[in-house]
Amino acid sequence: MHIKKLLSLLLSAVFLVSTMGTALAAVPDTAEAKLAAVEKSMYGQEQTGALMDRIKHLEKDYEGVNSKDGMMDRINHLYNAVFDNSAQPSLLTQMNAIEWSITHQVSMCATWPRPVPLGTAWCWDSTRMPLFIV
Question: N or C: which end of the chain has fewer CB within 10 A?
Answer without folding.
Answer: N
